[in-house]
């Protein structure tokens, strides 16, 4: 079977005529309207201004008081919301997705949820249940938007575990999972069995209330994956802080034990690995090998990481070792090693191992496309690419036009739901926003060309 997968990859791979690197010079911008390019140029310049990102929530509140909700909302819709958000209604989201499809791109929908630990309303079981129904609707919307998803047949959406299970529970589980004696109590297999059977699972380190919340959280997670599997939608689980990630990985491993069996046609649940953490290559190696031994399909979203400042600050406050790479260059080397590892596994396991190269870095994307060619991995097969909606279009469009599978991460919802979410994501992704200068330059060049050329 493995030999057949390799043969299929070889036949479906890129042309044997020689490696042709993609050009990310903005040439694909000709497919976008002038007004759209002008908005992108302006918004990316604004988002690269540190005070706007730092004080975004306060500025939003000030704008509403000074201008009123209607005018303030209209300005946001014409700028930041319009640039980074698909819309509020199903019709608006559908319109955004149709525009992406016309450009050779695909949607990766995301429900914008933000837990607030000090808010009783946003940490209650009712809030998590509401998020469950929002996730189920997102599954249906993801499927409904792409009834004919393309040759690879992949419909993807993002899943944030802390929308369904509290950060307090995840921190408690993280502390316990690091204890040697926790292996039997918190094995993925035990949690998977509890999810499948609906029986209570009791963990000795948790209080009675926390155990009830754990049971409810497992039920919610199982229900989302069950629904997604029935609707043929694959779930990419977001990574978060190091204080939460061991618990998130445990829950993903439990879901994978149930839903990523080879017989299920998976992987249906993918985990996210952050290359800016020092131990990522080691964990990725261990997890990939474990999935292979267990006969499970393995899905990975590979990112650089977004919580650098907070991770370093937390390590200083706690007097612990900094878990992050020392600088951007070290992070890039880590990303490159992880990318090479996963592409090798993909070439060996075929459709049982799948990867999203989630990166705005041109060198990383070039490395991925070149190695795919060398390994005979088909363009529209088990490897895809991911970037944020409204950013890195010079890379996304070039990839899409060349025939690669490219997804844009798309939040959707009301202004009240999405703007706080966007501002917090901007605060976590400062380096990405400030690193978008090249895209700003390319946008400026294209706008000047059109204006001087009379287009």
Note the topology.
Layout: H1 2-12, H2 34-47, H3 50-54, H4 56-67, H5 69-78, H6 80-84, H7 90-102, E1 106-110, H8 125-145, E2 156-159, H9 167-177, H10 188-197, H11 208-230, E3 234-237, H12 245-259, E4 269-274, H13 280-294, E5 298-303, H14 308-318, H15 328-349, E6 353-358, H16 362-375, E7 383-388, H17 393-402, E8 406-411, H18 415-428, H19 430-434, H20 437-453
Parallel strand pairs: 1-2, 1-8, 2-3, 3-4, 4-5, 5-6, 6-7, 7-8
How would you describe this structure to a colleague?
With 455 residues, this protein is an alpha/beta fold. Helices cover 57% and strands 9% of the residues. The chain is built from 20 helices and 8 strands. It has helices spanning 2-12, 34-47, 50-54, 56-67, 69-78, 80-84, 90-102, 125-145, 167-177, 188-197, 208-230, 245-259, 280-294, 308-318, 328-349, 362-375, 393-402, 415-428, 430-434, 437-453, and strands spanning 106-110, 156-159, 234-237, 269-274, 298-303, 353-358, 383-388, 406-411. Helix 12 (245-259) links the parallel strand 3 and strand 4. The longest helix is centred in the middle third of the chain and has 23 residues, at 208-230.
Helix content: 55-70%
Q: State the end-to-end distance.
A: 54 Å
| Overall form | globular
Largest sheet: 8 strands, parallel, barrel
How many beta strands in the DSSP annotation? Answer: 8
Biggest sheet, strands in spatial order?
A: 1-2-3-4-5-6-7-8
SSE order, as H and E? HHHHHHHEHEHHHEHEHEHHEHEHEHHH
Helix- and strand-based class?
A: alpha/beta
Low-confidence stretches: 1-16
Average of pLDDT: 86
Specify the number of helices. Answer: 20
- In terms of DSSP E residues, the strand content is 5-15%
Rg is 22 Å
């Amino acid at each position: 079977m493995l030999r057949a997968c390799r043969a299929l990859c070889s036949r479906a791979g890129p042309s044997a005529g020689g490696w042709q690197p993609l050009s990310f010079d903005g040439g694909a911008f000709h497919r976008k309207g002038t007004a759209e390019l002008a908005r992108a140029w302006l918004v990316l310049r604004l988002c690269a201004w540190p005070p706007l990102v730092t004080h975004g929530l306060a500025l939003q509140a000030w704008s509403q008081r000074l201008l009123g909700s209607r005018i303030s909302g209209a300005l946001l819709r014409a700028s930041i919301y319009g640039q980074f958000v698909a819309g509020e209604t199903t019709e608006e989201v559908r319109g955004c997705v149709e525009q992406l499809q016309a450009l050779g791109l695909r949607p990766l929908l995301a429900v914008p949820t933000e837990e607030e630990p000090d808010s009783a309303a946003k940490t209650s079981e009712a809030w998590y249940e509401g998020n469950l129904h929002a996730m189920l609707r997102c599954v249906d919307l993801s499927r409904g938007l792409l009834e004919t998803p393309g040759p690879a047949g992949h419909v993807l959406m993002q899943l944030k575990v802390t929308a369904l299970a509290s950060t307090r529970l995840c921190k408690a589980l993280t502390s316990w999972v690091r204890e040697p004696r926790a292996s039997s109590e918190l094995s993925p297999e035990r949690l998977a069995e509890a999810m499948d059977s609906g029986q209570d699972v009791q963990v000795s380190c948790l209080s009675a209330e926390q155990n009830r919340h754990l049971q409810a959280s497992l039920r919610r997670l199982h229900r989302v994956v069950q629904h997604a599997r029935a609707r043929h939608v694959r779930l990419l689980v977001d990574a978060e802080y190091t204080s939460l990630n061991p618990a998130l990985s445990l829950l993903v491993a439990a879901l994978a034990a149930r839903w990523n069996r080879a017989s299920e046609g998976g992987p249906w649940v993918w985990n996210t690995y952050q290359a800016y953490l020092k131990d990522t290559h080691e964990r990725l190696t261990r997890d990939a090998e474990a999935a292979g031994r267990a006969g499970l399909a393995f899905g990975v979203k590979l990112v650089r990481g977004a919580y650098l400042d907070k991770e370093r600050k937390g390590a200083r406050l706690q007097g612990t070792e900094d878990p992050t790479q020392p600088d951007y260059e070290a992070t890039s080397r880590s990303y490159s090693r992880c990318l090479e590892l996963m592409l090798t596994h993909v070439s060996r396991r075929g459709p049982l191992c799948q990867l999203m190269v989630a990166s705005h870095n041109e060198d990383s994307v070039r490395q991925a496309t070149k190695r795919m060619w060398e390994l005979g991995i088909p363009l529209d097969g088990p490897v895809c690419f991911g970037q944020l909606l409204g950013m890195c279009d010079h890379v996304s469009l070039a990839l899409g036009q060349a025939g690669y599978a490219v997804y844009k991460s798309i939040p959707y919802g009301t202004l009240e739901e999405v703007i706080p979410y966007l501002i917090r994501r901007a605060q976590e992704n400062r380096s990405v926003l400030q690193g978008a200068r090249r895209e700003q330059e390319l946008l400026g060049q294209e706008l000047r060309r059109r204006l001087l050329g009379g287009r």
